[in-house]
Design goal:
single chain; Rossmann fold; 395 residues; alpha/beta
Length: 395
């Protein structure tokens, strides 16, 4: 989110421990132009010796004075209001009236982000839904953060199909929020946006479910879901997509040689696990031992689950001890997990892939299919190199 909406800023408000926990979870932000900061509520604030609202007002005033480019400010609560003694929802409403229309100020909760950090995007987009203007025109909305390069690729595909009424949410600029209404259909670009989807439905938009655009099959089905809803003829769709599909399939051939018949185990981490498992199994021939995910939304993921092998074990939620026991029995070639598990598992001889890298890398669409497969092939190649080339250990 901090990279997508270029005139937005995220002010994390909470106790020192919680605020720094979110900073840690969002540590990748250091690689982009800084669009976030923390406002620490210390012991003096918590004891009631200072007016937390007045202190927050001062912080916001200084921030907006220093950064006149900010047009959308999110107050992100890292702790429940009962803990920090500050109702951020009310504070955001009060400050919004003070600074509007030059700056919009909204609030969402980041509490619980340590369970699955992708919840942050869902909560942020849900907070933006009430701000979307209303329209009666027929249009299509693609929901979920996509890297600009991927968004541009999809825009070109839609233009070649003759589709003009497709908008992306969130937009790159807060002043260009898409309009929605009873004639709006939307598809999700990310599988972890359940709350946002429900909020859009509450405003009359219609959810179109589809496999997600990971790999050639997923991208083709996802694009056809959009194209068919917008009245595109099948022949036109195929004429536009076939060259892209052929190029992507060709790029996957050498990666399939590395990944085929390798066993993979997913620990629950990002909520991307089920769509990625479908891609790896169907298009690259990997064997799924277990696919764990923090939350399993059957409505959003039904079409992904239906094409998984019947014998694969799905697990929901965090039960690490039991998952580690099953991991030892499964003896996979590759383990996808969080940073906290990766090093211990590597020390026990397992080959791991960091789940967070899959969230922050461009992996959607035809042009990224081989890049996505490469993220899984690379650790296996590294292990093979170290295992069979002793001189590599000394280099």
């Amino acid at each position: 989110m901090h990279r997508k909406i270029q005139d937005a800023f995220f002010l994390v408000v909470g106790s020192r421990t919680c605020a720094h926990l979110i900073q840690s979870a969002a540590g990748v932000m250091i690689f982009a132009e800084p669009r976030f900061a923390t406002a620490i509520i210390d012991d003096r604030d918590l004891a009631g010796l200072a007016d937390a609202n007045e202190e927050l007002d001062k912080v916001v005033q200084r921030l907006l004075a220093r950064r006149p480019d900010i047009k959308l400010l999110f107050l992100v609560g890292s702790c429940p209001s009962e803990v920090i003694k500050l109702d951020l929802h009310r504070a955001a409403g009060r400050l919004d009236k003070l600074y509007a229309p030059q700056v919009r100020i909204l609030n969402y909760s980041g509490s619980g982000i340590e369970t699955t950090f992708t919840q942050g995007e869902d909560a942020c987009l849900q907070a933006l839904v009430p701000e979307l203007p209303t329209t009666t025109e027929k249009n299509m909305l693609i929901v979920g953060c996509l890297p600009d390069i991927v968004e541009d690729q999809f825009i070109r595909l839609f233009q070649e199909m003759g589709i003009a009424q497709v908008r992306f949410f969130p937009p790159r600029n807060s002043k260009t929020l898409p309009a929605i209404g009873q004639n709006t259909s939307f598809v999700l670009a990310q599988p972890f946006l359940g709350d946002t989807a429900r909020s859009l439905q509450a405003r009359g938009a219609q959810l179109l479910t589809s496999p997600f655009p990971f790999g050639v099959e997923g991208t083709s089905t996802w694009l056809w879901t959009i194209a068919s809803a917008m009245g595109v003829e099948k022949s036109v769709f195929e004429a536009v997509t076939e060259p892209k599909k052929a190029r992507a399939l060709k790029a996957l051939i050498p990666l399939k040689e590395t990944l085929q018949n390798k066993k993979i185990f997913f620990f629950p981490d990002s909520q991307l696990e089920i769509p990625l498992a479908r891609f790896l199994n169907h298009e690259l021939g990997m064997q799924l031992t277990e696919v764990g995910t923090p939350y399993l939304n059957k409505l959003i993921l039904e079409k992904e689950i239906n094409v998984l092998p019947r014998q694969v074990q799905l697990s929901e939620g965090q039960d690490v001890e039991k998952q580690l026991d099953r991991l030892k029995i499964a003896a996979p070639d590759l383990v996808v997990c969080g940073l906290g598990l990766a090093n211990p598992l590597e020390s026990e001889g397992y080959t791991t892939k960091w789940a967070i890298e899959l969230v922050f890398s461009p992996i959607h669409g035809y042009d990224q299919a081989a890049d996505l497969a490469e993220l899984f092939a690379r650790p296996l190649r590294r292990k093979a190199l170290l295992q069979y080339s002793p001189e590599a250990l000394c280099s």
